[in-house]
UniProtKB/TrEMBL annotation:
One annotated GO molecular function: methyltransferase activity
Source organism, top-level taxon: Bacteria
Keywords on record: Methyltransferase, Transferase
Name of the protein this chain belongs to: Methyltransferase domain-containing protein
Pfam families in UniProt: Methyltransf_25 (PF13649)
Leader sequence segment: none
Lineage of the species this protein comes from: Bacteria, Pseudomonadati, Bacteroidota, Flavobacteriia, Flavobacteriales
PANTHER family cross-referenced by the UniProt entry: TRANS-ACONITATE 2-METHYLTRANSFERASE-RELATED
Organism: Pustulibacterium marinum
Entries under InterPro entries matching the protein: Methyltransf_25 (IPR041698), SAM-dependent_MTases_sf (IPR029063)
Amino acid sequence: MFAERKDYMPLKRKATPLHNETKDHWYSNWFNTDFYHLLYKGHDYQEARVFMDKITSYLNLPEEGSILDVACGRGRHSIYLNSLGYNVTGIDISEKSIQYAKKYENPTLKFQLHDMCEIFPKQFDAVFNLFTSFGYFEEDKDNLNALKAFKANLNKTGFGVIDFMNVNWVINNLVPNETKTVEGIDFHIQKYFKDNYIYKEIIFEFEGKPQHFTERVKAMNLKDFERLFEKADIYLLDIFGDYKLSKFDSENSERLIMIFK
């Protein structure tokens, strides 16, 4: 549910070393593999485009307005936003994802390797952080620094958007075990809630070698975000519960979509 990132390209026939969380953050390691994009290639692209259409219309962004897509992955949403006429900059911590996305650059679409916790040297009409690309950090100060950076990258009339999972709904609907077979690879997935984090263990074999990756996202609810917003001097304007921008319900909504300044 929470690794809801971007595009897919064919899997290279080369095994990836076993993940070592003592050496690297799980997200910088896992997001840099072809396996990640293979596992999540089945996402509903049409639903994502409907969301982009609705949110840009709701925000009433200026014609050819500027958007910063934070944690853009391989640029799927940046590319679509650019096709709507916006000037888009996509940033991500994954070197391989940015390298892939750069193939689609044009004068109004740029991609850059950048840490979301650091202020980007430009301001925008909108800053988007989409599809649960938040809450990965071990320390809360990093989440706060990311929010401060989002705010700093907004111009005086700009709006921010964070699209996060609704943790109450996710926990209540957690599927503990499942197997997804994609292009001959059986991904065995275990999900659980522990110490205020939602975990997903992804176990499989590739070319006879075992692979094991872990996703971990902090189970942040609306009150958690409100506390961080106050510290970051962010003003929460509106809240929605799905990609059609329906009213948020803390138990039944699948998403927590927050509009802020």
